[in-house]
Structure formats: structure tokens, C-alpha cells
Structure to design on (533 residues):
């Protein structure tokens, strides 16, 4: 049986450079009591694992590690679950290689 | 507030935006270009293969100046199951030519250089500035933009939207729809650093020769997707991308997928001992011809990934971006030289010129392939790779079983997995979509 080692995306994000725009998150989750299937999908689909479930079972976002791919927007903006924008000019991820 | 009026505003300093800005600036037009990143390239992700032909049309002397990695002498295609790969390699000394046809590049570095050419040509480039809105006049024509740096509107005769796959401005302004989960793929990628000699030894290269590997099969866990491994001078780009709709449907996590790809027995030795220096992710337009939106309107055109101009089958995107940017700029230049307004009717020549180029012709040729791949992903990305691996193993393993029996077993496994009608249907559907 092949045992899969746990992949920690936090370790991967550690390689990257960011300029965090403190207090101005560019992605916001709409307040909700029970998350929609689209919101729940983001827990897995976001490549930076920005979305987490809180103790009350709601989906929360921390944008600090966001790599600005737009996947969450494609999945969860149509339903109004999230609001997605670019960070302000100069802020966010800074790829050295890309 | 910038009072002066420009001939053109370009949003984005990626491949498409730089091609457009350069072409217009060279014609003596007054061009203002915005880029939200700290420097051009700091937001951009690519494999990355650069196609020389399209670059030459923009900067003929790019080979002497641009930060290029390796010129490609070899292309490998791998069809993978969990423990094996069946490969096709094409390597030719012909590719060691004076003016090589394809190069690997590192986008953040390349874009910075490309942008320096745009500035040299006379365009004004403003980085660290996100364009937040398109400005309209009372007749709903696009007349400029608003940014997060300055109050008020900045005006131009025409706005070139080169904002990349997410295309937020265009969708917000109602010029086109938001990309849907089944017409974009999410790719995740890492940069693995190794000494130059190690890369050359592992990939059988000398000097600046390069190789790229495109991989498909069980690595995408039944989703529509591809992996890639590209050799640069001192690092290896490695990544995997799958349709967003498939991630959504299956609940697979992109970084776990990437990790499994890296640990595949065919891949692991290539990157053993490397130092990872970056982890990135980006969307790729995959909808093909049928997903191309309206390309022009009153006072605007859209180019590159924002217009879904991407040939996922051949992994071409940057060249379509460059070409559409250049053609849009030539169309605008033509109107300008005739003193004609940038109306939708007049700007329609951009579409006519694009229709006549390889960009639209190629996308049209494969118009039925994306939907076929998407609906048949289990077969094309899981079942067939496993069957082909089994067939190869049957073919090469010598164990005393008579060859006729082995062939029968191979055939039986195919028919069992897909049935005769299934096999025949897949072959026909594929041939028709490829034609
Ligand atoms: C993993 C991966 C591998 C790929 N491999 C290849 C390959 O090998 N060969 C190939 O030809 N193609 C490849 N592609 C496709 C290629 O990268 C794209 O087709 C190409 O980059 C598109 O160029 P573009 O200028 O349209 O968009 P982009 O290069 O994405 O540029 C858009 C620019 O606009 C800026 N921007 C966006 N919105 C705003 C705003 N509101 N205000 C200011 N600035 C803004 C962005 O910061 C960015 O600089 C690959 C793509 C990926 C993701
Ligand atoms: S844009 Fe991409 S990285 Fe950022 S939160 Fe959305 S899915 Fe995650």
C-alpha cells in the first residue's frame, strides 16, 4: 500500500514573496450560516489553501497567501458567494520567475 | 489626474499588451500602458515555451538581447500510468540552427525585458497601478479608464484590453462573460533549481540545448489535464494543470496532484536534490474557438488570454497573445493614419485581420476537441493510459507466454475496458475533432 505523505501548502507558499495590503483583502466571502457547495469546493480547489472552515462550519478566507489565480472567482462569484478583485497596484504576490 | 489625452491605453503588460503597446509606439502613437504588478512579469506564469517566429515579428533582434533559457532540440510526450510512462521523443540536430524556432524562457524575467523595449519605443508604462474601471461617455462608448492610483478618468481614443485570462475589467463592463469552470484550467507550477551540469546530464543536453516533456495520463486522476517538465539553464519548471470544473467535481487538491506528479518514478529522478524557489498558479483558457467573445466595440479591443485566444491542444498561448496584440495594434494604427474614429464598425477590421491569421484558423481547426476531451476525460486521461501501459508491458516483458496469446490478452483488455463500439466511437470522434 502506497502511503501518501501529507502535502503542506504552507511550506510551498513560504518560497514566495508577497506584499500584503494589510486591512484591504482583495477577496471577500459573503456572510452565511451554511456554506453553498461552491464555497465548500474552494476548500479543496484553491491552490494556496486560502479558504478554511471555522468552528461554526462557515467558510472563511485569509488572502495573505493568495497567488491570484482566479479559480475561486470562476467557481464561486456567479453565485454571489465571494467578491473577487485584483489587489491594489503593487500589492499581492510578486513572482520572481513565474 | 492625467489631463492629456492618449492615442491608446493598454491594460496589462503581459505578452499581448506588450506586443500591442510596442507596435503602436513604434508607429509614433502616444501610448499609455498600465500594469498592476510591481514590474511587468511579476504577476505572470507560463511554462514557458517562447515561439521565435511571432517574437521576431515584434523584436527582430530578440535573440541577442532577450533573457532566453534554452533552445529546444527535443520534445517528449509521455503517457503515464501510476508506475510507468509510454513515451514518444522527437529530437533533431536540425533544431541546432542559427535561428532556433523555440526557446524556454522565465516569464517574470522575459516580460521585464519585453517591457524595456516598449519603453524604448516611446510608450509610457505605469506599473503598480491596477485599472479598476472602464470610463464611458454619454453614448456608452469606452473613452478611457480609472485606476487605483489617481482620481478621475484618463482618456484615450481606444483602450486595448490585454488583461489576461481573468479579464475582470471586460466582464465588469459587460463586454464579455466571466470564464466558466469548464473553459479554464488551473495550473500549478514549481521552479526547481539544480546545477547546470546536472540538468544537462539528466536530460542529455549540451550547451544551451533544451528539452520539454508534456505528460498526460493517470497523473490527472481522470480529470482533463496535462503535466509539463521544461528544462531551463539552471532550473526545471514543473507543473500540472486540470480543468477547473474537474477540480470542482472531484474535490482533488491541486498541490497534492503536483506532489504526486513529482513523486512519479519517471519524474522523481529528474528533480532529485533540487531546491524549490517558487510555487505559482495561473488559469489557462481552454474553451477554444467556441469560447471566443466579442473582440471589439466602441472604443475598445480585447487581445490575448482575455479573449480566450489559447490553443490548449498545442500548448500555445503566448504566441497567440503576441500576434493578436500586434494585429490589433496594426488595425488601430491603420485607422489612426486614415484619421478614422475608433468606432466598432471601424475596429471590426481587427477581427477580419485576426480571422485571416493562424490564430483563428488554428482555433477553428480544433473547435470540437475541447468539448470532446472534457466529456470523455475518464477515457482519455485514465482508461487509455492504463491500457496502453499494459499493452507495452505485454509487448516487452519476456516470460515464456506465446506472442499470439499476449496480443490476444492486450486486445481483450481494451475491449473489456471500452467495448468495441466504445473504441470505434472514440477513434472516430477523435479523428473528426482533429481533422
Ligand atoms: C502553467 C502555464 C504554462 C503555459 N505554457 C505556455 C507555453 O509553454 N507556451 C505558450 O505560448 N503559452 C503558454 N501558456 C499560456 C501563456 O502564458 C498565455 O497565453 C499568455 O501569457 C497570455 O498573455 P496575455 O498578455 O494575454 O496575458 P498575461 O500574460 O496574463 O498578461 C496580463 C497582464 O495584465 C495585467 N493586468 C490584468 N488586469 C489588470 C488591471 N486591471 N490593471 C493593470 N494590469 C492588469 C497582469 O498583471 C498581467 O501582467 C501557459 C500558461 C500557463 C498558466
Ligand atoms: S485567487 Fe486563487 S489563490 Fe487566491 S484565493 Fe482564489 S483560488 Fe485561492
Amino acid at each position: 500500500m502506497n502511503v501518501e505523505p501529507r502535502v503542506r501548502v504552507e511550506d510551498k507558499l513560504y518560497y514566495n514573496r508577497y506584499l500584503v495590503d494589510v486591512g484591504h483583502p482583495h477577496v471577500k466571502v459573503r456572510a452565511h450560516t451554511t456554506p453553498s457547495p461552491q464555497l465548500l469546493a474552494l476548500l479543496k480547489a484553491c491552490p494556496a489553501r486560502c479558504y478554511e472552515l471555522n468552528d461554526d462550519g462557515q467558510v472563511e478566507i485569509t488572502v495573505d497567501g493568495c497567488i491570484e489565480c482566479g479559480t475561486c472567482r470562476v467557481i464561486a462569484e456567479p453565485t454571489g458567494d465571494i467578491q473577487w478583485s485584483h489587489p491594489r497596484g503593487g500589492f499581492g504576490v510578486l513572482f520572481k520567475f513565474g | 489626474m492625467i489631463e492629456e489625452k492618449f492615442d491608446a491605453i493598454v491594460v496589462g503588460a503581459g505578452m499581448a499588451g506588450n506586443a500591442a503597446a510596442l507596435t503602436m509606439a513604434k508607429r509614433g502613437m502616444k501610448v499609455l500602458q498600465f500594469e498592476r504588478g510591481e514590474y511587468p512579469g511579476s504577476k505572470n506564469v507560463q511554462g514557458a515555451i517562447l515561439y521565435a517566429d511571432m517574437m521576431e515579428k515584434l523584436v527582430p533582434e530578440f535573440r541577442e538581447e532577450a533573457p532566453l533559457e534554452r533552445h529546444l532540440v527535443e520534445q517528449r510526450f509521455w503517457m503515464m500510468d501510476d508506475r510507468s510512462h509510454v513515451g514518444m521523443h522527437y529530437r533533431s540536430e536540425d533544431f541546432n540552427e542559427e535561428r532556433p524556432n523555440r526557446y524556454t524562457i522565465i516569464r517574470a524575467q522575459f516580460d521585464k525585458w519585453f517591457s524595456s523595449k516598449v519603453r524604448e519605443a516611446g510608450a509610457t508604462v505605469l506599473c503598480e497601478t491596477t485599472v479598476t474601471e472602464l470610463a464611458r461617455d454619454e453614448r456608452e462608448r469606452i473613452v478611457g479608464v480609472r485606476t487605483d492610483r489617481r482620481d478621475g478618468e484618463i482618456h484615450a481614443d481606444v483602450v486595448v484590453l490585454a488583461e489576461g485570462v481573468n479579464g475582470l475589467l471586460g466582464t465588469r463592463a459587460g463586454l464579455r462573460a466571466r470564464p466558466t469552470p469548464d473553459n479554464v484550467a488551473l495550473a500549478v507550477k514549481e521552479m526547481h533549481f539544480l546545477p547546470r551540469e546536472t540538468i544537462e546530464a539528466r536530460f542529455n543536453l549540451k550547451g544551451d540545448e533544451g528539452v520539454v516533456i508534456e505528460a498526460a495520463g493517470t497523473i490527472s486522476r481522470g480529470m482533463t489535464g496535462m503535466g509539463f517538465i521544461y528544462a531551463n539553464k539552471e532550473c526545471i519548471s514543473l507543473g500540472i494543470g486540470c480543468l477547473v470544473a474537474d477540480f470542482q467535481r472531484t474535490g482533488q487538491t491541486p498541490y497534492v496532484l503536483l506532489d504526486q506528479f513529482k513523486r512519479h518514478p519517471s519524474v522523481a529522478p529528474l528533480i532529485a536534490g533540487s531546491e524549490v524557489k517558487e510555487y505559482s498558479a495561473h488559469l489557462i483558457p481552454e474553451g477554444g474557438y467556441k469560447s471566443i467573445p466579442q473582440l471589439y466595440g466602441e472604443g475598445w479591443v480585447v487581445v490575448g488570454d482575455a479573449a480566450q485566444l489559447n490553443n490548449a491542444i498545442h500548448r500555445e498561448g503566448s504566441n497567440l497573445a503576441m500576434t493578436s496584440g500586434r494585429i490589433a495594434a496594426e488595425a488601430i494604427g491603420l485607422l489612426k493614419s486614415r484619421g478614422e474614429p475608433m468606432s466598432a464598425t471601424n475596429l471590426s477590421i481587427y477581427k477580419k485581420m485576426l480571422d485571416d491569421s493562424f490564430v483563428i484558423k488554428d482555433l477553428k481547426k480544433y473547435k470540437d476537441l475541447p468539448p470532446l476531451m472534457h466529456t470523455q476525460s475518464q477515457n482519455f486521461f485514465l482508461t487509455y493510459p492504463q491500457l496502453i501501459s499494459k499493452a507495452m508491458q505485454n509487448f516487452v516483458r519476456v516470460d515464456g507466454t506465446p506472442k499470439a496469446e499476449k496480443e490476444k490478452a492486450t486486445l481483450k483488455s481494451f475491449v473489456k475496458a471500452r467495448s468495441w463500439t466504445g473504441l470505434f466511437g472514440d477513434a472516430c470522434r477523435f479523428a473528426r475533432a482533429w481533422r
Q: What stands out?
A: Residues 318-338 of chain B form the longest helix (21 residues).
